[in-house]
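Minimal example, chain plus copper (II) ion.
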Amino acid sequence: MPTRRTFLGQTAAVLGLAVSGRQVSAASHASATLVAREASVQLAPGGYPATSIWGYEGRAPGPTIRVLQGERVRRRVVNDLPEPTSVHWHGIRVDNAMDGVSGLTQEAVAPGQSFDYDFVAPDAGTYWYHAHNRSWVQVARGLHGPLIVEEAEPPEVDRDETLVLDDWLLDPETALIDTSFDQPMAMSHGGRIGNLITTNGQFDLSIPVARHTRLRLRLINASNARIFPLQLAGLRGWTVALDGMPLAAPEPLEDVLVLAPAQRADLIVDVTAIAGETAHLVRIGNDDRPVSQVAFPVSGSSAQTPRAVPAALPPNPGDGIRSLADARPLRLVMTGGAMGRMDSALLGGERLGFRALAARGRFWAFNDMAEMTQTPLADLSIGEPVRLEIVNETVFPHAMHLHGMHFREIRDGRPVGPMRDTLLVAAQETREIGFVADNPGDWLFHCHMLSHAESGMMTWVRVT
Ligand code: C2O
Ligand code: CU
């Protein structure tokens, strides 16, 4: 009889095949529901009990939604959870009504109720979906999954693997999810950092490969607050897309790739390790030690010999911002957090001191406001170019995410690099982004360290 560990390993291998093939496309079209529900899954190593999570279809990550570029995504989200929920399609330029932000674009879906999401996926790439009601709790409990939009002509690879990186804060005795979601220490520091790191829900994911195999790795950081510094070992690779959006030219990945919460990276990698060795996607640990995030045990050699540098992915429609002439200047100053200089901020129209704010679960402010305000950061006209300076006066990094539109970074007064939806702004750093306000509606701009968003780091823009 197989032990629990090997049994789980086999199950995972079967699932891994199922989610990476094009075949599943048909099946996922047929089942148009996505049930958010409680489930019991084995997250922690053998010997530990199973963990009760909240997951789409009872899994974390939830099922991979795969469509062709330009196709519709239709899902009836059924809420079988004990509290209201909603689903946000992170990075997809959806119609505002489908953006899934409870309290802004829709009412949260009550337990026992459902909501029909229906939108077109205009851009190919690696995206994800996650809960957007009480997200600092619901995403931490497991409510997220990959959303893959395939190019009409995908790059030639032997395998296409989606790797959802996550961490879980579990009680070390019971392996149950630690429910101190509102813990002031986490909220006012780096956010909720887990003590069990997983890929696709497994702490020891292993993907057997042959030498010279070419893989496309779609990395998604679904954690609440953990920044993953990643490296390749026994693999030669290139970054071909960031946040789903293609790079103009593949960039060799020789150094560290930093993946902030909510960010994605598409890599094309060739297995260079020889049979009997194990290649790794490596995570740089706290003490700077490399740890295996995903193992790729190598057996045999594929018929292929080493291949040429991959071609760039086909560009997505929409050019983003190209010129800053006439761009409307906006500014966002981030303050607060532990060891910060925020003495006071506005909450409910009142100026409160740091302690009074903390007593109400507010630790951060955007432009002196410790909450999302009734009026937007900016009222933008459709088609208006915008440049937004982001001033991080805190001593923590923040992963800033814009809904509904993609931006480019502005460096030396010029928009550069690929379009993105999430930018990591380091402590005490100022960065600038530019975008064209081409999607009508109310769009959030917030920190994706989700407990930061909840405790003050959230604002929005209106495009009409
Ligand atoms: Cu990925 Cu406002 O969210
Ligand atoms: Cu933050």
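The chain has three domains: 4-152, 184-301, 328-463. Residues 328-463 form a domain with the Immunoglobulin-like fold (CATH 2.60.40.420).
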